[in-house]
Each structure stands twice: as C-alpha cells, then as structure tokens.
Specification:
Helix content: 10-25%
Strand content: 35-45%
Strand order of the largest sheet: 4-15-16-17-18
Oligomer: single chain
Low-confidence stretches: 1-21, 25-48
Length: 452
Amino acid sequence: MKVLCSILCALVLSFGISYAYEEIPADAKSHTEDVSKQMIASQAPAAKSRLGKNTIVNLSASGAELIHVVLVDKSIKRLYIAVLNNDGMEVIKEFPILTGRVDGNKVKQGDEKTPEGVYFVVSYSSGDELVKKYGSYALIYGAGSFPLNYPNIIDKIDKKTGGGIWLHGVKPDLDKTYTQGCVAMNNTNFGLLYDKISIKTPVIIAEKLLYSDDKDYETSRKQLLNTLNSFITAWQDNNKETFKSLIHSKFKTYSGADYKKYTNNKTNLMDKYPDKVIRNYNTKIFMKDDDYTVFDTNQYYCAANLSTYTNKKYYFIKEDGRLKLISEETASMPVAKAPELNNEIKSFVENWAASWRDQDIEKYMANYDIKFKTDKENYNQWKSKKTTLFSQGEKISLNISNIKWSYSGGEYRVEFIQEYSSGSVSDKGKKILTLSGCPSFFKIKSEIWREI
C-alpha cells in the first residue's frame, strides 16, 4: 500500500495556500508501478458522450467575457473544455480521463478520492519542472500539471483535509486506470488542455454533470441569476431581514468572519450609508450540482464615502431547500475600470454645464453638495453669486473638452478644459471638480479654476 507524501516540499501557489502533491509517495525514489492489470489513460473505457445535442447546465453566465472552463464528470470519466461567452456556453473539446481510485467526494488526506466542487487553477508546472522538483518519479506525470485550489473555502468549512489535487498528464508508457485523487489524461489531451487554460481558469468537478436541452438550460440560468439578484437587491435596498435570510448559518470567510459578524457588519453599514449603488458585470455561474453554486462576478459598489470595483466569488449552498450565501472572496480592481462609470461622470459634467448655459439656478445648484467650498466661497455664497450673474440675462457660451477623472479616498477628481464667454468676459482655463456620492446622486464638493 502506498504511503502518501509527508516529507515533500509544498507548492506555494498564487492563492497564498500551500499544497503538497498527494499522489507522490514518500518512498518515490524506490517506487515501482505494478502495470500488470492496468491500461494507459488514452485507452481508458471510451464512455459514450452524454452531450449529443444537449448542453451542460453546470456552466452559464450573464454578459460574460470570453473564457475557457474545464468540466469533469467523474461518473463517465470525461473532461470537457467549454467556452463561456455572453449568456451561454459551448463545449469545444471532450476526452477520457482518470480519477481517484476510490469513488465518492474527497473528505480527508489519503482517501484516494477526487474532490467535487468549483475550483480554480492556481499554477502550472511543465514535466521538466516537476522532475527538477520531485526527481525521476515525477516522470509519471507526463507533460505537466495544473494544481487546483483544493481545499477551497467550502471544503474548509466542511473540515475536509488533504491537498495537492492536480490536472496532469500521464507518462506515455505508464499503464494506469486510476489516480490517488487527481484528474489525469494522456499527454496529447493534456496538450489540448494546456492550449486553452491558464492560472485562474475555473474547474468544475462533479460526480455527475447536469445535462439538458436549450430550454431547460435557459430556465436554470435565469433562476440562478434571480438568486444572485435577490441577494444584491436586498443589500442595496437595505432590506435587513431578507438579506439575513439569504445568508447560510455556517457562513465563514478565510478571514474568519462568521454569520453573526458578517450580517452585523452589513446591517450596520446599511444604517450608516443607506444610499448606495451596486452593479454586477461579467457574471459567470459555476454549479457543482443543484445544491452548490458559485457566482463569479465583477462588482461596482458605491456609497456616500466609498467606491470599489472588485471581483467577487459568491459561494452559495442550499440550506432549508434554498440557496444561501456561505462564503465570499474578494479581489480588488481599479475603480476606473468599472463599466459605465466613465460615461456617467462625463454625463454629469455635461449636464452641469448645460444648467450653467441655461442659467437655471435651481438645476445648477442641484449639482452641488451643501458642504461645497471654493477657495473663497461656501455653498450659500456661491449660490448668491451665481443667482446675481444669471439674473443679468447675458448669453453664456461654454465649451467643455478633454474630460479626465480619477478616484481616491471616496471622491472623484474630474479635470477638463473650460472655455467661457458672456458679454465682455471671456476666459479659458483648467477646471477641477471634486465629486462625492455615486452615479445618479453625484454632488460637487469643491471647484477650482486656473487660467491657462
């Protein structure tokens, strides 16, 4: 019986978690394979494809950017490579694989089962790199490996142990009918995999994937999007009871936040910042089965004093017959990359300029924060000055160009070239507006003009 590795060096991966490769035995240098009753991976039983005209429900999206996704069906020993784009998916490759020697979902170190869940590729090692790291025994892994982030947060909540679950190749002359937990394929097929995936590629592993026709696929997609939208709407509308009802009782994050801490923090923020904008873009949906779904989405969040743009991974698990949020992961991105935001800031500036040209004091001042200040004037002084100027009835010519903006510390700094003339007065300069708030309720907090 193989003794699983306990002395191998760990792989330190991009997720900041260490994994030791489970399939390499501690006595690797002296290990020999019994090939008498095994067959090469490429000759594994050619299970008939279950796809046909159907599609795979485990993968869907809403306005997603094009990515490749790996799907594994353990029951028929098949791996699919799919393209996910916009609202749908298409399988482009399918081939046989080997999985763990023991049937079932992985629970602990050394049980020789392949885990089931939604995982992500965290690194890549070529065959040569594996040999350099582990010695000649690593030749059995053929062309290379893609380690996955097992155990993920769901596995940790379930107290599962083990690690080092890879997608990997197989030595050409090695007969093998199973692995000790990994997903393996012959080197030719591994090359096809290598061409389509990279770090962060999603990998869905299920005992049985969910297959359906196009109509059922679309029904499932819409139902899952409704689950995410219900969560986001309750949060945005400050509906505390509905929001808390959508959080799983076993909620936990990598940082240690549990149900009580998470819901208390969110409801306190609802009280403190009731006005907010939350938008999701590039939403991908990864299902292990009907009870386990991950929403991978880019999210713009804006409240009175804070704007963020992040990639969110929301993990939903069924509880009491309903999908509920059991964990989330967040990765920051620049706010400037949030879709629509650039156009909305420019639209705000253009509407502000139009109200100035029209000399409509109410519309004009509606753009300003009550705490507004210039170098010399506060809100009331500014309003009084503009009211006097507008009452003179002089036609205003105002041209705005070269609008640029940046975000920092809860405020948007907007710069542009302003050319102004009215009566005998004309000037050209750089205008800087500092905006607080969010799209649909931006306000000018300060205004600076410098002649150029």
